[in-house]
Amino acid sequence: MADTGKKEKDILKLLPAPQRSPKFTSRRIGIHTSTAGGVANAAERAYRLGCNTFQIFSSSPRQWKPYQLACSQCEEMTRLRQKYDLHPLVIHANYLVNLAGGNAEFHAKSIAAFRGEVERALALGAEFLVLHPGSFRGGSREEGLQRAALAIEQSVDGLDLAGDNLRVLIENTAGSEFSLGGNFEQVAELLYLLSNFVPSGACIDTCHTHVAGYDIVSEAGFADTVDQLDRTVGLKNVYVWHCNDAKAERGSKLDRHQHIGKGSIGLKTFRRLLNDPRMAHAAFIAETPIDEPLDDLTNVNALKKLVRR
Ligand SMILES: [Zn+2]
Ligand SMILES: [Zn+2]
Q1: Which of 135, 160, 218, 253 is most buried by a 10 A CB count?
Q2: Ligand minimally distant from the alpha carbon of residue 31
Q3: Domains of the chain in sequence order
């Protein structure tokens, strides 16, 4: 068949009917979803993909431009989430935000941008706001951690996160040279510093964990890694798992996400994770690539199929 050159990519057009299987799982499973055409459209897309939770960006992830959400969009989001039982709503913060860095101008810009993230998360009624702890280039790791904690405290000043049930989740990272959060101890340390002034928790990414060097592939390795996570962060504090397979090898520090079951992690790890009763409270969210138009559907279904019940 001749390739017409342009592939339709919007799930709203590709999936006119919801793909929710009648026998849905006991776990909360979703995917990072596009907000094209308005933030509430993401809820409709997530529903059609068969999700019962989802993640979005509340503004353009690689721009500084401040962004205000229309009230009507926030109300529509709440309405659709109730109608479709989409819970929790996870927002991923802008990638430019670096709260651990030493450059004063960039730091101030990051604090303002992160405050905007918190305000939009509150307006949307989101449960979780995921943040990468940042890069400490130009200072020591310890300074970076202290700076990040203080910056988060400043960003949320005067905002009532607890009253609105919003939690800031610190995500573990792939462990590249100056990035904070490349091991569970660093995530735990930041959570400890945050514990007095902002509701917080962790988001653990399977790809980041694997390329940072933890063994989550062998059975014994998985058990040991989960043990280490429990002793540091505490499993009950992991509210979101980013379920991504990895293109790169364990320990490579290269953050390249792959389709579920198609990378160097493999299906067994996701099966163990999804069926572990200690993780039952968490949301499992894929951030997998879109190489083919229906890849999001394939990845959501791949995760759902692994749940025993
Ligand atoms: Zn992630
Ligand atoms: Zn990643």
Answers
A1: 135
A2: 1
A3: 27-306 (3.20.20.150)
